Design the sequence.
């Protein structure tokens, strides 16, 4: 797999958020499409963002029939869970109301997609 694509009301805004969060670089951009990836020479899955004017943010966790269902979420491993959570929030994410685990933080990006910051469990 090379790329994960996320829809958004504004592809450029969401790409900017993940570019800052992950330290990624812009690989390609068009008026309604942006592709970002890890810095040159580094491995990793690229992210692409497509403007969808009728985009409806998912609800997490789903609470009622008919809620816009989450289709996927991104897991991002970090060394400092609290520090990286604070940094993600400062970049425009918001902490989800429901937090299911102590070693994971569920956040919502500026378009409402959920993503998780996590640390490996201590041995």
Sequence:
């Amino acid at each position: 797999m090379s790329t994960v694509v996320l829809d958004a009301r504004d592809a450029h805004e969401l790409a900017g958020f993940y570019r800052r969060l992950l330290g990624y670089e812009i690989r390609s951009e068009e008026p309604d499409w942006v592709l970002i990836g890890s810095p040159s020479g580094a491995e990793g899955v690229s992210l692409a963002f497509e403007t969808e004017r009728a985009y409806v943010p998912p609800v997490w966790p789903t609470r009622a029939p008919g809620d816009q269902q989450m289709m996927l979420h991104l897991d991002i491993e970090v060394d400092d869970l609290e520090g990286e959570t604070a940094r993600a929030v400062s970049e425009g994410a918001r902490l989800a109301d429901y937090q299911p685990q102590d070693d994971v933080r569920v956040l919502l990006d500026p378009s409402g997609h959920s993503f998780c910051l996590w640390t490996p469990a201590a041995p």
Q: What stands out?
A: The CA atoms of residues 32 and 51 lie 5 Å apart. The chain has two helices and eight strands. The helical segments are 11-22, 81-91.
